[in-house]
Each structure stands twice: as C-alpha cells, then as structure tokens.
Design a protein that fits this description.
The complex is a heterodimer of chains A (254) and B (247). Chain A is elongated and about 75 Å long. Chain A is built from 11 helices and no strands. Helix content of chain A is 81%, strand content 0%. Chain A is mainly α and 254 residues long. In chain A, α3 crosses α4 and α7 packs across α8. Chain B contains 10 helices and no strands. Chain B is mostly helical and 247 residues long. Chain B folds into 2 domains: 31 residues; 202 residues, MetI-like fold (Orthogonal Bundle), CATH 1.10.3720. Classes of the chains: A mainly alpha (254), B mainly alpha (247).
Chain lengths: 254, 247
C-alpha cells in the first residue's frame, strides 16, 4: 500500500514534536522529545514498574465492567418483561444517569473507602447505563413471532426470557458492553486519579506532580494503546460470539 | 402521571433513609439525614450562594461543548465531502481518538495552568471526537442520487451543504452531540476536581475532604439537577430540530 497523505501528516507532526524539543523551539521541561517518551515507555515496562499498575487498573476495570454489564442486562430485561419494575424504579435510574461520574466518587469514598471496592463500584455504575439502554432496545426489537411461537409451544415466561428473548437481545447488549468497555477504562483511570494510591491513573498524576514529563506522556500513550487493543479484542470476540447475527448481515450500533 | 409510582418509590427511599439515620442504622458520619441536607440545600438556593459555582461549571461545559461541536462538525463535514481531506486527516483522527481525554488533563495543566483555558480545552477535546465521527458518518450517508440531482440542478457546494448535506446529516450530528454533552459534564467536573479552584466538581470533592457532608450532598444534588436539565433541554431541542423525523 502506498503511504497516504494522512500518514505523512502524522509522521510530519511526530517529526515536528521531536525537532521542536531537540532544537529547543519549545523550550520547556514539559516538552520532551518523542524519542525520550518512547524510551521512557519501554524502560518503565521493562523495569517492571508499569506492568503491575496496568494489571491493577485492568482488574478493577474488568470487575466493574462485568458487574455493571450483568446488572444492565438483568435490569433491562426486567424493565421490558415486567413493566411494573420499570414503573417503580425507572425514575430512580433516570435521576442517577445524568450525574457526571467523577462527582459520585467523593460520596462513594465515604462508604467504600479509597481502594478496590469503591473503584469497581464506580466503573460498574458507568458500565450499567449503556448496557441497560441497549438491552432495552434489543428486547424491543425481538420479533413478536418468536415470542408468540414460544407461547404456542407452552414455554413458560422465565424460560422464554432466558432462551428466546435473551439470545435475540445479545447483539444489542454486546454493542452496549462495547461502549461500556471504552468508558470503563477511562473511568477506572479517573477514579485512580482522584482517590487512592493505586493504578495507572495515580501514577499519571504523580508523574505530573513530580515533573517527570516523559513518563507522563508514556503513560498516556500506553493508555491509548490499551484502549485501542481492548476495543479491537472485544470486537473480535463479539464477532465469534454472535457470528449468526453478522451472518444475517445485520448491524446493532444502536 | 406516568412517573408517579416511581416518584413515590423515591420519596419512600428518602423517608426510609431519614428514619434509618435517625435510628442509627446508617452512621451520620457517612450520610446526614436527608432533611439536614435539604436544609443546607435550601440555604444555598435561597441566598443565591449556589449561583457562582454553578455558572462557572456551566461556562466550561458550554464553551467546550460549542467549540468542540463546531470543530467536530467542520472537520467531519470536510472529511465527508472531500476524499482528499479524508485521506489527510483520517490517520491522525484514528491516532488521537483512543487517547482517554481525561488522561490529558495532567499535561494540559502543565501547559495551560489551572485556569479556564485548561478546563475548556479538555472539555473541547472530549466533545470533538464523537461529533466528528457522527458527522462523518452522516455526511457520507447522504443519498448519492440526491447529490447527483443537486448537481443536475446546478447547486453550488455551499448551497448543497446548507440545504441538503447538513440537514440530512443532522440526526447523526445531534446524536453525537448528545453523547458529547454527557462527556463534557464529566470532563468539566473532573478538571475542576484536579485543578482545585472552584466550580461544582471542586466543591463536591473539597466538602468531602473537609467532612462537610451536608454541603457535599447538597452540591451533588445541584450538579445532578443541572445534568438532568441540560439533558432534557437538549432532547427537547433535538426533537424540535428533527420535527420531520417520525417518532
């Protein structure tokens, strides 16, 4: 493939970054050359400083994402299949939804402390809403004939929910989880930036305070790579899990 | 009233919390009785003390939201109608997009300090990308036949943009802006927390750290209501702008 103009633009900007720092066009300790940042990144990974931090952050993200996604699917199914639950709990959910996530961290710190339980809860709360929304869209899109056929064959309501509605909803719910995945990493890092002394988010803020700019930029690059890789990995997993959906040539980006 | 049973549940929950705190089931050090929080909230509201922090947060959200949306729509449209622009900017956009914008707050603080410039920049950054990608998708989705028809009728680029491409892409653009509005609030609150100068985000964190919990919960309620209001206003505006869509 011939390198496109866009690739040249990226390379030119990277070169500009390197040269502007090396030749002191931007003369600031906060503006290290790109090569120094890359060296810092590999050094911090090889020295074993970053890997445990990444592991901790990913663990909190994963636990919160799993808990929030399961809650989102369960509540979404309940809201649609047993409308009385939506009548009772809907307003409470709608009141919680627009609160910006960082703002719920201070009260949660009081109840759950600064460590994993608080951070996992914050991530779970973030992941809950997109999964809930998409699950409800998915249930609404289930073909009425499929449910009616189940009823004709004498399948009970719980089994209908588990074996007819849930699989048909899966593509939508998974699209919600994919959105939640991106948010989860961001929120896990945000929680670490605001509270506690663990994980990659805390490291990032420490490097800023310590004025260690190369390490700070290296952390950001690492986070971008992580986010990109997680998304790519999830999409691949999604394609395998619901291959029948894509075989039907459909899309659930809802 | 469609919502009344749910609102009744909320009232019951608040009533129960009041009782539970009174009866010592929940420690006052964690949750003051809702009535005490309500008192503080009333004081903040009636004295007008709530306005300056609210306005300072609102300013960040609005400035960042409009700047980011403008950049997103402009760049997205340019990339959507011009293959050359698309080839030029696509790799750069794909490179910057996966960077968590919240992680950019620390370096932005180094360069722009802790004033509004830093906070508005971080909000702008987070707003830009969803709007850009949605605009691109919307502009590219415009019916070829319609574009050919416009050319047949001798419409210029500006005219086609204003009367065909942008209206057709509007549902996508607005959907992106709706996502971005939530993100704008998140980044505004976060950068206030990290920069520690003022605004609702700073106050909520500061009140918690100084154990003024009634104040913390009162400010949190104010922030939640602000979020709810902004969301509802946007949904309303979106519905009016897209009146021609079937709903």
């Amino acid at each position: 493939m011939r390198p496109s103009s866009g690739l040249w633009l990226v390379l030119a900007l990277m070169a500009l970054w390197e040269v502007s720092a090396r030749l002191h066009w931007v003369d600031s300790p906060n503006w290290p050359p790109l090569s120094t940042v890359v060296v810092a990144l590999f050094h911090d990974i090889a020295s074993g400083e970053l890997p445990p931090l990444i592991g901790g952050t990913l663990w909190r993200m994963g636990a919160g994402l799993a808990a929030g996604s399961i809650a989102g699917v369960v509540v979404g199914l309940a809201f649609c299949l047993a409308p009385v639950t939506r009548l009772l709990l809907g307003p409470a959910v709608e009141l919680l939804r627009p609160i910006p996530v960082p703002a719920i961290i201070p009260p949660l710190v009081l109840f759950l402390g600064l460590d994993d339980p608080m951070k996992i809860t914050v991530v779970a709360l973030t992941a809950f809403f997109p999964v809930l929304t998409n699950t409800m869209q998915g249930v609404a899109a289930v073909e009425a004939e499929a449910v009616q056929m189940g009823r004709t064959f004498g399948v009970g309501p719980l089994r209908r929910a588990a074996f007819i509605v849930l699989p048909a909803t899966a593509p939508y719910a998974l699209a919600g989880v994919r959105v939640a995945l991106g948010l989860s990493l961001v929120v896990a890092v945000v929680a670490e930036m605001i509270a506690g002394e663990a994980g990659i988010g805390h490291y990032l803020v420490m490097m800023q305070f310590a004025g260690r700019a190369p390490e700070m930029y290296a952390t950001i690059i690492l986070l971008a790579v992580l986010g990109y890789a997680l998304n790519r990995g999830f999409v691949a997993m999604e394609r395998r899990a619901i291959h029948w959906w894509f075989a039907l040539g459909r899309q659930a980006d809802g | 009233m469609r919502h009344s049973p749910g609102i009744l549940v909320l009232v019951l929950v608040i009533g129960f919390l009041e009782f539970a705190v009174d009866a010592g089931m929940i420690r006052r050090a964690l949750l003051p009785p809702p009535s005490a929080t309500a008192e503080v909230l009333w004081e903040l509201l009636s004295t007008g003390e709530f306005l300056p922090p609210l306005l300072s947060t609102l300013k960040l959200v609005f400035a960042g939201f409009f700047l980011g949306s403008a950049i997103g729509v402009a760049l997205g449209t340019a990339m959507g109608i011009s293959p050359a622009m698309f080839r030029l900017f696509e790799p750069l956009v794909e490179l910057i997009r996966p960077i968590p914008k919240s992680a950019l707050v620390p370096p932005l603080m180094l360069f722009l300090g802790i004033d509004d410039a830093m906070k508005i920049t971080s909000v702008t950054l987070v707003v830009t990308f969803p709007v850009l990608l949605n605009t691109l998708q919307g502009v590219r989705g415009v019916d070829r036949v319609m574009l050919d028809a416009a050319r047949t009728h001798g419409w210029g680029l500006g005219h086609t943009l204003r009367h065909m491409i942008l209206p057709a892409a509007l549902p996508f653009i607005l959907a992106g802006m709706r996502v971005s509005l939530g993100l704008a609030m998140v980044l505004a609150v976060l950068s206030e927390m990290l920069a520690g100068q003022g605004g609702l985000g700073f106050l909520i964190l500061d009140m918690q750290r100084s154990f003024q919990l009634r104040q913390m919960y009162a400010w949190l309620v104010i922030l939640a209501v602000l979020g709810l209001l902004l969301n509802s206003i946007f949904l309303l505006a979106e519905r009016r702008a897209l009146f021609w869509q079937r709903r």
